Amino acid sequence: MSDTTWFIIAIIIYMGVMLAIGYWSFQKTDEYDDYVLAGRGLNPFVAALSAGASDMSGWLLMGLPGALFVSGMSQLWIAIGLLVGCWANWKWVAPRLRAYSEIAGDSITLPSFFENRLSDKSRVLRIVSSLIIIVFFTFYVSSGMVSGGRYFESTFGSGYLDGMLIVAGITVAYTFIGGFLAVSYTDAVQGTIMFLSLVIVPVMALLTLDDPSSIWTWATSHDYGPYTGGTGNPTYFSMFSGVTAATIIGNLAWGLGYFGQPHIIVRFMALRSPADARQGRFIGMTWMLLSIVGATFVAIIGTAFFGQNPDIAVVDRNAFETIFLDMGRVLFHPLIAGLILTAVLAAIMSTISSQLLVTSTSLIEDLFKIFAKNEPSQRVMIYLSRTAVVAVAIVAGLLAINPSASILELVGFAWAGFGSAFGPLVLLMLYWRRLTTGGAIAGMTTGAVVSFVWGMSSLGDALYEMVPGFISGLVVTVVVSLMTKEPAETVIREFDEAQRLSRVSAANPDLDIEKAAKLQQAGKI
Q: 128 near 445, Cβ under 8 Å?
């Protein structure tokens, strides 16, 4: 049997499992809230792994190893920033957002939470935030489809477009039928596959080398990948050589983006209780740290693995983003290799599915619903959300047909957009009583516009757009809030109730948050 046949068998097994989870989720999804947020019943293990898998995407297995392979350890500043940002997100945002989103009108989307938190009757805040989600997630979903096309190019030697369509089709299918529950559980499975593969592949590659210790010297003195002058990359292991202070700041600033990523923080809203955030933080950070270490060693070991074996070529000769795929393909029996290589497919599909669901929900829950003359039934809302999933996928697919940027560049652009627009706002929503609707709208819009314009101009080459975007959004939100009328007393009272409920729930992990909210409203806690 040919290698391609074995790979196809592995992919079919994987796709079958994903569709089976989608069908199982479909049977458990009766209400619209179930389709959108799984009835707020997500356990911390699933929440942590699904958040991690949807967060990392193809960047972890393709973008990061490729960047480290070409440029060296100076690219690790991004990973460091992400680790710090992820920890802070689970620590400071997760428990409070879980409590507050339920108290604030039982909000099931980020735009609806913004509106309910500030009691914005104009609907402007909800509409603007929804439009930002739709614009930037379209780019984000497109980056996932680019990853899918390149995956099939490297694994099967097939056409880029064919691979992109296959990945998009399967992902849309299980998202379409199973909603949030399907997305979360498939993400948890996919996160497990990613983790195991990032451990197994570099270890096996290291064992094949005649001199494993050569991984620490090969890149700095021998040819490999893009270096053909006989001297390699002498500064490969330096985290400072060749990078400016602005570059380091910009890379670390990736961590700021966590506070504003709708597809990640929606997992916090779906937790069973705020107390689950502590366990979720431990699981999520352990998974992320070990996965990043694995991706780093894929690059380090890859310099010697490919450099010492001139007969083995990396398929992607530009950004070298396929080194993980190529390493797995060379090392293992085709069936095992195929199963390991599904890690990239898992990363790609987990992110696409999460983003598709958030975008479609925003279209229906936050735009269509507020303009509809009559309240649609639960069943109609589910059907409309499913239709929106397909529509968003089509638009993103059209953008991905002729990719002109690397995966890392596409992800970075969308990540900065959300981080700048929503990051400061989410933190202020949860921790500042004086926040006003005017300040929220002005700051969110400023952050999004500054990030977009900066990233599209030559300024983006000097400093990552997250930095000016986040800072400008934060400053404008605070200044405009202080210049406008204070929030209504009911808004401030609800803010205080949410803080108390978050503390009570953290101290009593077994306490049902719905009962706690009722007891609090009755003045009993």
A: yes
Q: Give pLDDT tens digits for 240-254.
A: 988 889 889 988 998
CB 147 within 8 A of CB 387: no
CA–CA separation, 438 and 444 (whole Å) = 10
8 Å CB contact between 120 and 437: yes
SS3 content of the chain, % helix, strand, coil (to 5): 80, 0, 20
Using DSSP, state whether 159 is helix, strand or coil.
Answer: coil
Give the count of alpha carbons within 13 A of 158, CB side only.
19
CA–CA separation, 336 and 98 (whole Å)? 40
The one-letter amino acid code at 125 reads L
Contacts of 379 (CB under 8 A, 6+ apart): none
Q: pTM for the whole thing? A: 0.86
Domain that holds residue 278: 3-400+407-521
Total domain count, the chain:
1
Q: Cβ contacts of residue 218 below 8 Å, gap of 6+?
A: 224, 232, 303, 304, 307, 308
- Count CB atoms within 10 A of the CB of residue 348: 29
Q: Which amino acid is at 77?
A: W
How far is residue 390's CA from residue 356's CA, in Å, rounded to a whole number? 8
Q: What is each CA distance from 497 to 104, 168, 388, 486, 501, in whole angstroms?
A: 10, 43, 35, 18, 6
Q: Which residues contact 372 (CB under 8 A, 6 or more apart)?
A: none
Cβ proximity of 224 and 218 under 8 Å = yes
| pLDDT tens per residue, range 430-471 | 999 999 999 999 999 999 999 989 988 888 888 999 999 999
CA angle at 221 for the pair 215 and 224, rounded to the nearest 5°: 70
Residue 311: give its domain's CATH number: 1.20.1730.10
